[in-house]
Amino acid sequence: MESTITLAFIDNDRFFIEGLQWLLLAYFSRRGVQVQLLDAAQAHRADMVFQSVERDWQARFCRCSVSGSRPINFALREPGDIRWRDKPRCISETGVIFRNDSPDSVVRQLDLALAARVQSGAAHRCHWCERHRITRREQDVMRYLACELPQTTIARNLHLSVKTVSNHKQAAMRKLGFKRNADLYHWLRMGGLKTVERP
């Protein structure tokens, strides 16, 4: 195991995250591994990512990872959130931690994840990457949205109708799992567009 590991947490429940951080710091300290904590904006550089996932949604970690990186990704879910199990999983999801899991259960998952990381081979693209790729035109629209330009200006610059721009934006939001405009704009401000590969 490396002598330093970087961890990132993407969750609004600070109380839960502080408890999880305390558990992880103790876990790695016992193994002689130093821990560096990264904020959500730097999660793409982390060795291990813990990210909350909305109820009934699938985690789509492969949509967020930088090309060539292989972080260990854990989805953080509410107790009783199980309907997502009927759908294909993201191949980049290492495991699921429920908010009511015992510390022993979390430690067992860490042990399994770290053991599997040593034995893992090359990464493959998963169901969510292949079926929900962002098109070139959707990326063009999002690039202008990242500059906070109005849709009328985007339409004029791309020689499209305002309705077509809106359709591209909605399609990209659906593929990325965003239900609200505010979530998309926050993701764009945090540099999320850099994590989306061109098809």
Write a compact overview of the structure shown.
With 199 residues, the protein is of the alpha/beta class. The chain is built from seven helices and five strands, in the order βαββββαααααα. α1 (14-30) links the parallel β1 and β2 (34-38).
Describe the protein's architecture and organization.
- This is Helix-turn-helix transcriptional regulator.
- InterPro entries: Sig_transdc_resp-reg_C-effctor, Tscrpt_reg_LuxR_C, WH-like_DNA-bd_sf.
- Helix 4 (136-146) packs across helix 6.
- The protein is elongated, with a radius of gyration of 18 Å.
- The mean pLDDT is 83.
- It is built from seven helices and five strands; from the N terminus they run E-H-E-E-E-E-H-H-H-H-H-H.
- It is α/β, with parallel strands linked by helices.
- Strands 2-1-3-4-5 form a five-stranded parallel β-sheet, covered by helices on one side.
- It folds into two domains: 4-128, Ntrc-like two-domain protein (Rossmann fold); 133-195, Winged helix-like DNA-binding domain superfamily/Winged helix DNA-binding domain (Arc Repressor Mutant, subunit A), CATH 1.10.10.
DSSP helical segment count: 7
Helix content: 40-55%
Q: How would you state the average pLDDT, rounded? A: 83
Radius of gyration: 18 Å
Content of β-strand: 5-15%
Query: Which structural class matches the secondary elements?
Result: alpha/beta
Overall CATH architecture of the largest domain: 3-Layer(aba) Sandwich
Order of helices and strands: EHEEEEHHHHHH
- Largest sheet descriptor: 5 strands, parallel
From the spread of the alpha carbons, the general shape counts as: elongated
> How many domains in all?
2
Number of DSSP strands?
5
Strand order of the largest sheet: 2-1-3-4-5
**Could you please say which CATH topology of the largest domain applies here?**
Rossmann fold
The low-pLDDT segments are none
CATH class of the largest domain: Alpha Beta
CATH homology-level superfamily of the largest domain: Ntrc-like two-domain protein
InterPro entries: Sig_transdc_resp-reg_C-effctor (IPR016032), Tscrpt_reg_LuxR_C (IPR000792), WH-like_DNA-bd_sf (IPR036388)
Pfam family, one: GerE
Keywords: Activator, DNA-binding, Transcription, Transcription regulation
Protein name: Helix-turn-helix transcriptional regulator
